[in-house]
TrEMBL record:
<dbReference type="InterPro" id="IPR015424">
    <property type="entry name" value="PyrdxlP-dep_Trfase"/>
</dbReference>
<keyword id="KW-0663">Pyridoxal phosphate</keyword>
<dbReference type="InterPro" id="IPR005814">
    <property type="entry name" value="Aminotrans_3"/>
</dbReference>
<dbReference type="GO" id="GO:0005739">
    <property type="term" value="C:mitochondrion"/>
</dbReference>
<dbReference type="GO" id="GO:0030170">
    <property type="term" value="F:pyridoxal phosphate binding"/>
</dbReference>
<keyword id="KW-0808">Transferase</keyword>
<dbReference type="GO" id="GO:0009450">
    <property type="term" value="P:gamma-aminobutyric acid catabolic process"/>
</dbReference>
<dbReference type="GO" id="GO:0034386">
    <property type="term" value="F:4-aminobutyrate:2-oxoglutarate transaminase activity"/>
</dbReference>
<dbReference type="InterPro" id="IPR015422">
    <property type="entry name" value="PyrdxlP-dep_Trfase_small"/>
</dbReference>
<dbReference type="Pfam" id="PF00202">
    <property type="entry name" value="Aminotran_3"/>
</dbReference>
<keyword id="KW-0032">Aminotransferase</keyword>
<protein>
    <submittedName>
        <fullName>Predicted protein</fullName>
    </submittedName>
</protein>
<dbReference type="InterPro" id="IPR015421">
    <property type="entry name" value="PyrdxlP-dep_Trfase_major"/>
</dbReference>
<comment type="similarity">
    <text>Belongs to the class-III pyridoxal-phosphate-dependent aminotransferase family.</text>
</comment>
């Protein structure tokens, strides 16, 4: 570290940006050209271990040669230079590219590409609404083009029933699913996301608040009862409102505080949805693409019946969602925008998947995550009373401090030690490194954290 962070060059750049853009969230300005691997360099020459990876979205680090080759390979120039309206005019060979990238290991039969994670969740919900409406029309007898009434067609144009349906989605306290209009009605992690924004009055279920360590008998008993309570209250909300047609849940409530639940909880939730004909969406925007120690975090739940839809973005480079066949829209343009993703981002995903396969990065996340949590447990013993609730899957790992102030002070001190890491919830530090983050890198973080904790009071 050559200066404090943010340093003078970052502060100058922020002042320049601030003339025409809101800059309150700006952490520091990155020298991308001179950043490498798991280490980020800022414009002041500070080099830091990057444990947040651009909000969990930089899968193989800075300037990886496989990723750079995407942009220097002459065969890719036409794809990178032209951003087509994919659902109208896809480029030649695109079906093969999608099949070999997005559909490899998808687990579901169809994919719809999108612009960002919020777009993915928003449009996945739309596909549920369309499918449920069509199913209910069929159940009324004889489904066909003429089964859509003139009243439905005219009333939807003025946002009224019966054309505009009263359908709802159930979400969970502590959830974050994005900042678009409907997604904000599913998001319950920070008031700043929602303040002053109109929202739907949709049901919100409790998400389990587990106690740690998980193998402690008292914690295990509490957690089993807590998860049973949350499933019961979710079922009561579903049974009380027939307009709830879908449930959406994160494998780890990342923005809400890195809150976890067991595979048994998610299996129960999925079964209760299926028994009621309620669609079940898993939001893997932050957890997908290997960081959990499996490619998709929900693979660890042991589901007998896969989700109806799985949304993705961030480390996948392109956003979108997978669905079962029954959620495919019944007509063109029902789910649509100009670009519907970007074929250039699929080329970037191809590079990521090549690295994941060739370098065993999913297994690396599993092994490194175990090492990281063992190290955090050791720090909690060495600095009694300062760290709590070590938890995680793969490198999606978190720990709590005593208070928001203690957490924020620790994050600032870690940055001065050359480690950039982020927060969530009220008092949580969360780790979201890239896929090449190894036990060697974890040791750098743990040693720095040890020094920070040794200097802290209380």
């Amino acid at each position: 570290m050559r200066t404090t962070c943010p340093g003078p060059n970052t502060l100058a750049a922020r002042a320049e940006l601030d003339a025409f853009q809101e800059t309150g969230a700006l952490r520091f300005v990155v020298d991308v050209e001179n950043s490498r691997g798991c280490y980020v360099r800022d414009v002041d020459g500070n080099v830091m271990l990057d444990m947040f990876s651009h909000i969990a979205s930089l899968p193989i680090g800075y300037n990886h040669p496989t990723m750079l080759e995407v942009f220097t390979n002459p065969r890719n120039v036409a794809t990178l230079a032209h951003r087509p309206a994919l659902f109208n005019l896809p480029p030649a060979g695109y079906a093969k590219t999608v099949r070999e990238t997005l559909m490899s290991g998808a687990g579901l039969t169809h994919v719809t590409t999108q612009m960002c994670g919020s777009c993915a969740n928003e449009n996945a919900m739309k596909q549920v609404y369309i499918a449920v409406a069509n199913r209910r029309r069929r159940e009324r007898g004889g489904y066909g083009a003429g089964d859509v009434s003139e009243e439905e067609l005219s009333s939807c144009m003025v946002n009224r029933a019966p054309g505009s349906k009263p359908y709802k989605f159930l979400s969970f306290h502590g959830a974050f699913h994005g900042r678009t209009a409907a997604c904000l009605s599913l998001t319950h992690s920070k008031p700043t996301h929602k303040l002053d924004i109109p929202a739907f009055e949709w049901p919100i279920a409790p998400f389990p608040r587990l106690r740690y360590p998980l193998d402690d008998p008292a914690c295990a008993a509490h957690n089993a009862a807590e998860e049973a309570r949350c499933v019961k209250e979710t079922c009561e909300l579903l049974d009380a409102d027939p307009d709830v047609v879908g449930v959406i849940v994160e494998p780890v409530q990342s923005e809400g505080g890195d809150n976890h639940a067991s595979g048994a909880f998610f299996r129960s939730l999925r079964a209760e949805c299926a028994s009621r004909g309620v669609k079940f969406i898993v939001d893997e925007v932050q957890t997908g693409c290997g960081a959990s120690g499996t490619f998709w975090a929900h693979e660890q739940w042991g589901l007998d019946d896969p989700p109806d839809a799985v949304t993705f973005s961030k480390k996948m480079q392109i956003a979108g969602y997978y669905t079962k066949a029954d959620l495919v829209p019944d007509a063109p343009y029902r789910v649509f925008n100009t670009w519907m993703g970007d074929p250039g981002k699929v080329l970037m995903l191809e590079a990521v998947l090549k690295c994941v396969k060739n370098d065993g990065l999913v297994e690396n996340a599993r092994v490194t995550g175990e090492y990281l949590r063992e190290g955090l447990h050791a720090l909690s013993r060495a600095h009694a009373g300062k760290l709590h609730n070590v938890r995680g899957v793969g490198t999606i790992t978190a720990v709590d401090l005593d208070s928001s102030a203690a957490r924020d002070d620790a994050v600032d001190a870690l940055r001065e030690e050359g480690v950039d890491i982020a927060t969530c919830g009220d008092r949580t530090i969360r780790c979201r490194p890239g896929l090449y983050f190894t036990p060697k890198h974890a040791r750098v973080f743990l040693d720095a954290f040890d020094r920070v904790l040794a200097r802290s009071s209380g």
